[in-house]
């Protein structure tokens, strides 16, 4: 059939290569599919339709270097997963049988074990056959990861059903995150480890560079698939889970423009993959003392993902499953144009002019919740000023003589106690003071890092500071070092006051959330050093950490008396609710802080700048996009908390204590968002007169010579008791907003 739109100009930076065992895989997998019963129902598949889709060709393209037996195994996996998708569509998507669909998916879990039940359909027979052929060659750590991504791929098919049932199209942030699970590319990435003999070292698999490589790979695979499959999925099957459709609805544009935006996002994610591989992997290897054999595994994994990207595009262009119009790839199957290099994710992201004028009109944010104040507000204001002075927040900073990051006047104008008051309206006086102190510490740290380390381009000093801060949070609460700076003294005081009442497991979760926040500040410094406006997906996901929202929410979730089982915390509904609240608050902060960050600080980390750079539009249009994202996330939060979450609790027959804990957490999130909005509207932190009066220091305002930076690294290392040039590892995040920008 003729397509209603032309496929876009795809960025194809890698050449596809074909595995020489392609014919063997085709023959083997045809027989395997018949043996599993996948060709028994002609309404789903026939031998002719299977041959036309040519999954043997797909796997030969996406795994060009593996052996014939390995290619047979991988091809069987892809035949199984595509059959599952079509079988699920035929059995449940058309009938809208939600209950039957969930039972069907839950039963598949049992086949990822050493003692599976008797299979009852082709999907179960396929999984029962594949599992013992696959897992013996891999470690227990890989097996756990593969179970998780396979379960995500299967279970998140319900997400598509829910949207069809509601006739609802996701907002862009929700779509990218959920598509990453249901689309199966993280599952494909785990199979790359198997096929390429590149199992990731367990200690590195959760690191930011590996995570971003996998996620940017996954997003690129899914966005490309959405462009090729729009006609079949949306026009023929009535699906609502396609980025082209998401862009049509969110931006209110025609299909042609939606295709262009989707393709720009695909290009940006490919650039993010390249950027991470070239700039973040070397730092990871140095920081974590990664051995040469381990480095080889990681690099082989990255190459495997790169091969998959190139081969996946070649297969999409050949398979009967997808649209066939549009331009062809160039020489060797590659296509890199000037627009790909200079556009979204490319050179455009390095050309922002610091300290540009930043006059924009802010909209009235959508906020359905009311703010209540804590009766101890005035006492908390006074106590926080005393605490910050006692910690040394108003003192000079090592390496910057006679210069303070804050002073008492500025802190009083920020009025962080007002924010804490709305977030915790029912807290005791001591609890409110503790909440305010955390806000002050996080916000001070957010100002401290660019002031102290940013101006000198001192990434080593920042990592060394992070190492010391982590050592100030001992799980056994036994101090092992003396804090030397105001930032260190603040954390050393806050940690036992907060972690002491928490049980050990909760204590560890909370510490991880603080570690993730401070490591995200180093990520910001690295982007500033490269003068790079972040990719929009990477920015939004990291913004939750830089804002401290995950740290905030971990404290709320771990509050004494809360009983929220992990199986609820890890559900689509609970995670979606939490992420929607985080994104609302983070984007809200970016709207209010836009002029402060862009005009006065020369910053690059602001959603308005990120969106206007990605879309190549004026800042005011960027404001409109950010406001639209905020509003859509709030409406998603409302829907989840009033419909999806109650349905989940009913489905699992949750007890009264669990329901009360979940309801209290939802109330905390509502208070949190409403209080943050009210605080932004009243705080002096974002007023021009305050910005002109306060000290401003970002990268372009500090020393820039290599000799100066090296000298500062040495002086800071000496002050902190460590050797100059020591490689420090970034580390991995959640109850108040620490680190408001």
Question: What's the layout of helices and strands?
Answer:
Blueprint: H1 22-36, H2 47-53, H3 55-62, H4 68-93, H5 98-108, H6 122-134, H7 140-155, H8 157-166, H9 172-182, H10 185-195, H11 208-236, H12 243-251, H13 255-287, H14 292-318, H15 338-342, H16 377-391, H17 408-414, H18 416-423, H19 429-454, H20 459-471, H21 486-499, H22 504-530, H23 536-546, H24 549-557, H25 566-569, H26 572-600, H27 607-615, H28 619-651, H29 656-682, H30 688-693, H31 706-720
Helix pairs in contact: 1-3, 1-4, 3-4, 3-14, 4-6, 4-8, 7-10, 10-11, 11-13, 11-14, 12-13, 16-18, 16-19, 18-19, 18-29, 19-21, 19-22, 20-22, 20-31, 22-23, 22-24, 26-28, 26-29, 27-28
EC number: 4.2.3.-
Cofactor: Mg(2+)
Organism: Microbispora amethystogenes
